[in-house]
Design brief:
By secondary structure, the protein is α/β, with parallel strands linked by helices. It has a single domain, classed as Flavodoxin domain (Rossmann fold, 3-Layer(aba) Sandwich), CATH 3.40.50. The protein is 39% helix and 20% strand. The chain has six helices and seven strands. The strands form two sheets. It has a five-stranded parallel β-sheet with strand order 2-1-3-6-7, sandwiched between helices. A two-stranded antiparallel ribbon has the order 4-5. The structure holds flavin mononucleotide. Flavin mononucleotide is lined by residues 9, 11, 15-18, 91, 93-97, 138-141, 179-180.
Length: 202
């Protein structure tokens, strides 16, 4: 059993999604004591944005610099870790109504035609099915279906769409919402989400 733990907040110790992914990973370590855990801290060590040079390298063109070469290798490792994982735990802060750009850069490396999806006669087909994804979502406001800002949720809805596209249907969101409304709401939302994370089913 392999678990991939990805954090993507830029808020370091103050990050709520990081606190939640830690609880989730601990929970799964308890459920599967011999589990192999890989960790990617995209806040501390972000992948570069995809560029023309990255795409050209995939077609066999020599990368223009060592920096691009290293970044390509890190991107390939990210894809390998994603493909190898049975469980993927993702810390996903909402920044400007979407995911962090660090998480988007990682998504750009794992959505690879021929590896995690393909286009066939019936249209797109996900190739990464059978995995379990747990997203620790943290956001300053409220974006539930009944909230006035629901249409601005391009974070959870986006992640669900991406993973569905890759063939993954077992997706759970552990959510702390309204964390910037007040300190009391922040504490309550974090405590409730952490309690939920600690009880996740295998
Ligand atoms: C750059 C930035 C942009 C943000 N944009 C939004 C936003 O669009 N909507 C929202 O509700 N909260 C927003 N927030 C608040 C975060 O969603 C909130 O702080 C959350 O806890 C972030 O997750 P993290 O603590 O793991 O980084 C933003 C915070 C930052 C730092």
């Amino acid at each position: 059993m392999k678990l991939l733990h990805v954090d993507a907040s830029i808020l370091g110790q103050n990050s709520i999604s990081r606190q939640l992914t830690a609880v989730i990973v601990e929970r799964f370590r308890g459920l599967h004591p011999d589990m192999d855990v890989q960790y990617a801290d995209l806040g501390a060590e972000p992948l570069g944005h995809l560029s023309g040079a990255h795409l050209a390298a995939a077609q066999g063109v020599q990368p223009p610099s060592e920096a691009v070469q290293r970044d390509l290798e890190r991107g390939r490792a990210a894809l390998r870790d994603f493909l190898a994982a049975d469980i993927i735990v993702i810390g996903a802060p909402m920044y400007n109504f979407s995911v962090s750009s660090q998480l988007k850069a990682w998504i750009d490396r794992v959505c690879v035609a021929g590896q995690t999806f393909r286009y066939g006669p019936q249209g797109p087909e996900g190739l990464a099915g059978g995995k379990k994804v747990i997203v620790a979502s943290s956001r300053g406001g409220f974006y539930g279906p009944q909230s006035p800002a629901a249409a601005l949720d391009h974070q959870e809805s986006y992640l669900r769409g991406v993973f569905n596209f890759l063939g993954i249907t077992d997706i759970t969101f552990v959510r702390a919402e309204g964390v910037n409304i007040s300190p009391a709401q922040r504490e309550a939302a974090l405590a409730a989400a952490a309690a939920e994370a600690a009880q996740l089913a295998a």
